[in-house]
Amino acid sequence: MKQSHIEVTERIRERSRPTRTAYLQRVDSIINRQRGADRLGCANVAHAFAAMPSNDKLRVIAEKASNIGVVTAYNEMLSAHQPYVNYPDIIRDEAKKLGATMQVAGGVPAMCDGVTQGEPGMELSLFSRDVIAMSTAVALSHDVFDAALLLGVCDKIVPGLLIGALHFGHLPCVFVPAGPMSTGLDNTEKSKVREKYAQGLVGREELLASESAAYHGAGTCTFYGTANSNQMLLEAMGLHVPGAAFVHPHDGLREMLTREAVKMVLQNTQKNHFTPIGKLVDEYVIVNAMVALLATGGSTNHLIHWVAIARAAGIIIDWTDFHYLARSTPLLASVYPNGKADVNQFQTAGGPAFVIRELIDAGYMYPDVFTIAYGGLRQYGQLLTKEDNKLVWKDLPKDSSDETIVRTAAAPFNESGGLRLLKGNLGRSVIKISAVPEDRHIIEAPAIVFDGQEELLAAFDRGELERDFVAVVRFQGPKANGMPELHKLTPPLAVLQNKGFMVALVTDGRMSGASGKIPAAIHLSPEASAGGALAKVRDGDIIRINATVGTLNALVDEDTWAEREVVELSDSKRHSNSHGIGRELFGGMRRNVLSAEEGAVTWL
Fold first, then answer.
1. What would the DSSP string read from start to end of 181-249?
2. Which residues fall within 8 angstroms of residue 599, CB to CB, at 6 or more apart?
3. pLDDT reading at 386 higher than 80
4. What span, in angstroms and rounded, lies between the C-alpha atoms of 386 and 417?
5. pLDDT one-digit tens code per residue, 196-232
6. I need a labelling partner for 381 at 20 to 30 A (CA). Which of 72, 291, 471, 502 fits?
7. pTM (2 decimals)?
8. Does any domain span residue 203?
9. Rounded to the nearest 10 degrees, how much is the dihedral formed by the CA atoms of 161, 163, 164, 170?
10. pLDDT beyond 90 at 80
11. Rg (Cα) of the chain, in Å, rounded?
12. How far apart are CA 413 and CA 397, in angstroms?
């Protein structure tokens, strides 16, 4: 194992010792109880199984069969979740064959960021993660389950399900994905049409045709954004059936994988392979997930989400840990927005299995960790296939089948991962550089300050941004308005960059997991609404972003900077960020949320 990775892991272990120890004590105290059907009062048990068929009641109560709780994020608004419509029937059938029972424990909300992007509903998006975690807890709180299957794929849904499951750390848990949609319009071509629309060169009809050709069926969007990064990280954590991430929803393998998930979760309830999720997800597994994110140039959103997930298991990580891991983790994948390939092409070229195999063999990931599979983490570095109507795992070819998409650790796209920590007098921020041209890793230009993305878009439409500048978009953090993604800013800023202007974005908000070629210092902490330095910036201040050495500064005289007052968000703007489209209901979360670097957690 690489010494640099060992050192980061040991710092995390030492920092987390009190909270992790307390967490494991809570898990052990619950593991040692009687099972639910034997422990609860008779009225409780009767209620729990009242609607079960008589044979299932006999199994779970008299025969003490394992009872699986299913938590599903099924809905028809998310293309990735629509295939879950019949999963409970498949799971119930397989559980019955294996002598177990199954109940749908509950559903969790799951919103589509693609629908709400740039709209007021996006201000609920980040907080929906913790709502999903709480909903998972409500579903499992009936406390009659021996294991859980978690059905979710997309952006906040997987982190929310995982946070919720870790608060039931005594249960063996398996995540059951549904796969990506088939390849549609090329992602690069889609972006070109968006940029033309931003310039007024095409109309709404052409734009809608382009978007509909890109997002056209069941499954996740095919770019390597937050949803597909989720799937990569779950493979790296050993929480999927190995190789399940990127099989199409209607591929014949998909039902077999769902049935295999039932088998594996039941195996994990057995004494000789008992693997509760709270013990599976330890410091080594969290580091493996961080490394997988960095090695694939994954979504910046996970510098928030995986901090929160780790906290749910009593593990404390921060952006400095990501920074040091990134310095010595090679970039092994080039998938849009970091390259031209989509996730289907990534899968064909070797996908998560190739990356995991390379990272293990080169000493960047810990192989000897708990997983839900008998074969351990090395099984996740093997090729999944079908023979004689059975799932089998075989060794992958030594070399990449397409070096424009995946590479070996000996010949990476870059010697370091795709994310950087930026520090300076503006605070702490992160930047994704895997898709940013190298000549844009350092930007120095005057600030133009906006208190919302709408102001920037209006300035672009008025033709006021035809120059070098750094767009400072503030009051976009968790406390201000729920930290919406600002992906709508990508097309106009890309247009200006393509014209030769030096442009960049600095914000306490988020970008989409699909953020790409525009230098964007995001998640700036402390945020403006918490008195952060971003609220000191004025139009014309020179801002320097240096992703090469990791700095972010306003080049203002120190005395002037120290004396400058912090601007506060206007009452009218604050009111508009907190009312309408259900935002009133999230006021408590905005008041109590921790910083982005602390995972934007609302439950501590």
1. PPP-S-HHHHHHHHHHHHTTSS-HHHHHHHHHHHS-SSSB-SSSSHHHHHHHHHHHTT-SSTT-TT--T
2. 304, 305, 307, 308, 309, 310, 311
3. yes
4. 33
5. 988 889 999 998 999 889 889 999 999 999 999 999 9
6. 72
7. 0.96
8. no
9. 110
10. yes
11. 24
12. 19
State mean pLDDT over 251-258: 96
Q: What is the mean pLDDT of residues 259-285?
A: 97
**Distance of alpha carbon 453 from alpha carbon 450, whole angstroms:** 7
Q: For position 314, which CATH number holds?
A: 3.40.50.2300
Domain assignment of residue 92, yes or no: yes
Name the strand (E) or helix (H) holding 94.
helix 87-97
Same domain, 11 and 160: yes
Q: What is the residue-averaged pLDDT of the chain?
A: 94
- pLDDT score at 384: 96
Domain that holds residue 555: 419-598
Task: Compute the distance between CA of residue 141 and CA of residue 138 in angstroms, rounded to an integer.
Answer: 5
Distance from C-alpha of 418 to C-alpha of 485, rounded to nearest angstrom:
19
In what helix (H) or strand (E) does residue 483 lie, and over which residues does it extend?
Answer: none
Q: What is the pLDDT of residues 23-79, one digit of tens each?
A: 999 999 999 899 999 999 999 999 999 999 999 998 999 999 999 999 999 999 999
Q: Are 110 and 248 in the same domain?
A: yes
pLDDT at 419: 86
Contacts of 153 (CB under 8 A, 6+ apart): 73, 78, 80, 81, 177, 178, 220, 227, 230, 231
How many C-beta atoms lie closer than 10 Å to residue 366's C-beta? 20
pLDDT at residue 575 above 80? no
- The strands making up 173-175's β-sheet, listed across from edge to edge, are 101-107, 67-72, 147-151, 173-175
Q: Are residues 125 and 247 in the same domain?
A: yes
Q: What φ, ψ does residue 544 adopt, rounded to 5°?
A: -120, 120
For 379, phi then psi, to 5°, come to -65, -25
Residue 140 shares a structural domain with residue 222: yes
Q: Answer whether residue 448 shows pLDDT above 90.
A: yes
Buried b (16+ CB within 10 A) or exposed e, 83-98: bbeebbebbbebbbeb
The total number of structural domains in the chain stands at 2
One domain for residues 388 and 447: no
As a whole-number percent, the residues of the chain with pLDDT over 70 amount to: 100
558 burial class (0-12, 13-18, 19+ CB within 10 angstroms)?
A: exposed
CB 488 within 8 A of CB 460: no
HEC states along 349-405? CCHHHHHHHHHHHCCCCCCCCCCCCCCCHHHHHCEEEEECCEEEEECCCCCCCCCCC
Mean pLDDT of 129-155: 97
Instruction: Report how far residue 596's alpha carbon sits from residue 580's, in angstroms, rounded to the nearest whole number.
Output: 24
Alpha-carbon distance of 121 to 112, in angstroms, equals 10
pLDDT at 513 > cutoff 70: no
- Is 40 part of a structural domain of the chain? no
Token digits of residue 286: 């969290």
- Match 């330890």 to its residue by tokens: 282
Q: What is the band of 370 on the pLDDT scale with cuts at 50, 70, 90?
A: very high
Task: Enter the tokens of residue 160.
Answer: 């929310």
Question: Is the same domain home to 464 and 361?
Answer: no
Identity of the residue numbered 153: V
- Tell me: cis bond preceding 478? Omega within 30 of 0 counts: no
Closest CA to 430 of 288, 589, 290: 290
**pLDDT for 145-175, tens place per residue?**
999 999 999 999 999 999 999 999 999 999 9
376 and 432 share a domain? no
